[in-house]
């Protein structure tokens, strides 16, 4: 004990120096936007490398199970395609109709394939990190989906990695509609189960039934219309009694999410540019009006 006391007394100046250095760095990055963004980007890149390595090991260990699910899913999809092709042929007598329709729909988008390297499920504000960034064409506010449906929205993009705000985040707010019925609302997640979210502000005059599909409405500047979200599982009244609140069984399995795609939709990108231009043009007018008021 005496030796420890002597050691601390001898090097107390160094300990004080280190403590002050740490405190100054915390204050620098915490209260300065530019330095904070530099720190966040650098830390995110290093963390992304670590998450990437961990994800590769995990993916290798679970490869057998994933391949089995993919095989099963491919068989189901092949059967569905055969059934749809047969029905379309009976209706139109044109076996290429389905292929042309699918091509027209997919040709609107550029899909950036990515892998999930880190994610969480047990927090009010969950985030997902993917292994694609600005170098690959990923930008802030792009929509992200997987083979089963909507995943989330790009929150921040570095050079080689990007962070996504998924549906399982309290700040997520995605405009959705009931497929084929033209009623829409806003998708929110309130914590709890990772396979359930809620569609709020559905009008009282809306007509729908349990099991109806919910898809993106296309009314936002993030997702195109028609991306699957889930199915209606239960119906509640809103707190004010003026609208419905629908419980949605999400189609995306966030607990087993590995492969995603970032949707680079030219029409959505143009819509974002028009909205930004409008905001930039309105801001000087507001400032001018405020100046007159003074």
TrEMBL record:
Swiss-Prot/TrEMBL GO biological process terms: regulation of cell shape
Please give the GO cellular component terms listed in this UniProt entry.
plasma membrane
Q: Which UniProt keywords apply?
A: Cell shape, Coiled coil, Membrane, Transmembrane, Transmembrane helix
Q: Does the entry feature the keyword Coiled coil, yes or no?
A: yes
Superkingdom, taxonomy of origin: Bacteria
Q: Which Pfam families match?
A: MreC
**Keyword flag Cell membrane:** no
Domain (Rod shape-determining protein MreC beta-barrel core) spans 116-263
What sections of the protein cross the membrane? Answer: 14-31, 149-168
Instruction: Name the InterPro entries for this protein.
Output: Cell/Rod_1, Cell/Rod_MreC_2, MreC, MreC_beta-barrel_core
List the coiled-coil residues: 67-94
* Family to which this protein belongs: Belongs to the MreC family.
Q: What is this protein called?
A: Cell shape-determining protein MreC
Per UniProt, what is the name of the gene that codes for the protein in this document? Answer: mreC
